[in-house]
Amino acid sequence: MFDCLCFDFDGTLVDSTEAALEALARVGPAFGCAGLDRAAVERLRGLHAREIVQTLGIPAYRVPGFVARMRREMRAGLLATPPVPGWTETLEALAARGLRLGVLSSNASESLAAYLARYPLPHLDFVVGGAALFGKSRALRRLAARERLRPARMLYVGDELRDLEAARAAGTGFVAVGWGYTDPTRLHAAGAGAPLSSPHELLERIESDAFDNEEVRRVGS
Q1: Among all residues, which ones are annotated catalytic?
Q2: 158 bridge partner residues
Q3: pLDDT tens readout for residues 24-50
Q4: At which of 36, 54, 79 does a domain end?
Q5: Domain housing 141
Q6: Which of 209, 207, 181, 139 is CA-nearest to residue 195?
């Protein structure tokens, strides 16, 4: 049984795809990115975050600046985007079962605070922002130590290949959502199991006797 469920933010609790596309249209030209049509965006959804940066043609030394600009530009779009329908009720039900709940995100802490002030998702025991784009495994381990949790009894819920890799490296369980940045078929092929089709499905899986061992084994292999 898991003691703690930790959620990614962008693409998981919030379907921020449109906000990201609008931000990219504004930020991209300064970094040499050509405009993307819908077909190009769908192709990017099949790629790892590192591959996306390479495909956009952004030099490695400019990636930190690009990410920082994107986060700033996305903030207004995020504030206009409610959480994915069903999360409020699902979080209520998970908390009622005695599970600790929280957020671990690469998004800036101040952006998370502003969003949660407008859309107060219930029963979040911790909110950790500012994790490095490719440093979530380290952040998950630090979080487990701070909260005195065994990683194997934590479940990370995310939408990207880097989320899966972080959970695998940190030794936590992992569940993917099917509405985020990465194409669900790519997540499944990478070993994430069947992505969630709705927040309510997470509750059903948590209550399944076969769920815990299957998911921990899957990401740990």
Answers
A1: 8
A2: 176
A3: 888 888 888 766 666 777 677 666 777
A4: 79
A5: 4-15+82-220
A6: 181
Distance CA 47, CA 162 (A): 10
Residue labelled with tokens 């490719």: 134
Domain boundary among 27, 45, 79: 79
Can you say how many angstroms the Cα of residue 44 is from the centroid of all Cα atoms in its chain? 16
**Spatial CA neighbour of 23 closest among 84, 58, 68, 85:** 68
Q: Is 171 left (phi over 0), alpha (psi -120 to 50) or beta?
A: left
Angstrom distance (rounded) from CA 185 to CA 189:
6
Give pLDDT tens digits for 117-148: 999 999 999 999 987 766 789 999 999 999 99
Answer whether 216's CB lies under 8 Å from 47's CB: no
Q: Identify the pLDDT of residue 40.
A: 72
- Give the pLDDT of residue 152: 93
At residue 216, the pLDDT reads 44
pLDDT confidence bin for 211, thresholds 50/70/90: low
The pTM (predicted TM-score) of the whole model is 0.86
86 and 142 assigned to the same domain: yes
